[in-house]
Amino acid sequence: MSADTIFALGSGQPPAGIAVIRISGPHAGPALHALAGRLPRPRHAAVATLRHPASHEELDRTLVLWLPGPATATGEDTAELHLHGGRAVIAAVEAALATLPGLRRAQPGEFTRRAFANGRIDLAEAEGLADLLSAETELQRRSAQAMAGGALSRAVNTWREMLLALSARLEATLDFSDEDDVGEGESALPPGFAAGCTTLAAQLHEWLARPRAEPLREGFRVVLAGPPNAGKSTLFNALVEAEAAITAAEPGTTRDVITRTVALDGVPFTFVDTAGLREEGAGAVEAIGIERARAEAVAADLVLWLGPEGQGPSSATLWEIEAQVDRADAPPKAAPMHRLSAQTGKGLATLRTALVTHARAALPKPGEAALNQRQHVLLSDVATVLDHAAREPDPLLAAENLRLARRALDTLVGRTGTEDMLDALFGRFCIGK
Ligand SMILES: Nc1nc2c(c(=O)[nH]1)N(C=O)[C@@H](CNc1ccc(C(=O)N[C@@H](CCC(=O)O)C(=O)O)cc1)CN2
């Protein structure tokens, strides 16, 4: 338990209808008492007049909650002030809280970090929570909810128990191996040991084979490519502008690249337009378009190729698009996946539907927890050492493999780990979470 008591605005940017200030730590009760003049009945909403503890000036007349630990989100004593959401109200209450002994403003993610430190959530659940807070589409929300709700954590606990059982049986045979009763050509391993490792590894491989968290978090990446005047930007605008509700336009890190993240039918997409090619000479232009496309295709989940048929980059899934069917001078394609005119809208709805269907198949299913890079690396390590253990004739080496596997599982859920990694994760949260 931390000695400091922290407080922060947990609700959104003011001004707002209501602003929730959360206070967590051993001084949460005394702080609420100092402002409200009493401690309300635990876990029951109460109306109170909050006053400055020194001047007794009225700060707000509002709803408060007293939530004694450890059955709270952070595991600590918690108080909540549900204020009128004006900036000055919040500032006055925060200033009053800051005068109280043992209280200080929280750092980003500090409430969640305490929940983790107090064993209320594990690391995989905290990662799920971070994704839940940044979720902007239904698909993102449901997958993050599964992770935050412990889908991976429960699996890890099961695997950990299976590992411990395998280790225990192995250690038992090791204890007896002194007696030298293992005959020539006879395995020193307990019966069914290899099969046990293989069964466990199979469960890990099933998780490892699932679609990953990153394309879900960042949006299924669709790159529009082809030479200038092929209709890329018109198509890009048609695809992103119709669904501008959650767009976040970012100037690309690469020169001349525009990316925009949108949701189509609840599925997150990042569309990439390789726009703004500077035309230097007629012959070179096509080559530039193709070169740009090659570079972008490496990171793409799908390339929409608007250039000459069969000349698109080969490194990604690619759909041949004939994009300017309204124009008489546009070169036709013999066998395009889609024929459309972003200008007139012809063929656009069909393309959108096809994109959504295609991305859905490549992204985690609704409500399916997906592994992020860190989790994937660690689970791969576990699967690898288990594959080794299954083939290992020497019980001592097999036991060491199982220990390595257990250590990686512990790191996965944060039973062991480095401060750096925790700093990086909890730094992703906003203040007040
Ligand atoms: N006002 C408010 N809303 C909020 C939060 C909050 O802290 N305050 N949350 C902030 O995270 C989230 C809800 N998370 C929570 C997680 C656990 C417990 C909790 O007290 N759990 C106890 C008791 C459960 C019970 O009474 O049934 C437990 O699990 O033992 C509360 C909130 C979202 N909404």
UniProtKB/TrEMBL annotation:
Keyword tRNA processing part of the UniProt annotation: yes
Known partners and oligomeric status: Homodimer. Heterotetramer of two MnmE and two MnmG subunits.
PROSITE patterns (UniProt xref): G_TRME (PS51709)
Domain of life: Bacteria
Note describing how the cofactor binds: Binds 1 potassium ion per subunit.
This enzyme's EC code(s): 3.6.-.-
Cofactor(s), by name: K(+)
Name of the gene encoding the protein in the UniProt record: mnmE
The species this protein was found in: Novosphingobium cyanobacteriorum
Lineage start: Bacteria, Pseudomonadati, Pseudomonadota, Alphaproteobacteria, Sphingomonadales
Sorted UniProt keywords: Cytoplasm, GTP-binding, Hydrolase, Magnesium, Metal-binding, Nucleotide-binding, Potassium, tRNA processing
GO MF terms held by the record: hydrolase activity
Protein name: tRNA modification GTPase MnmE
Domain TrmE-type G: 219-360
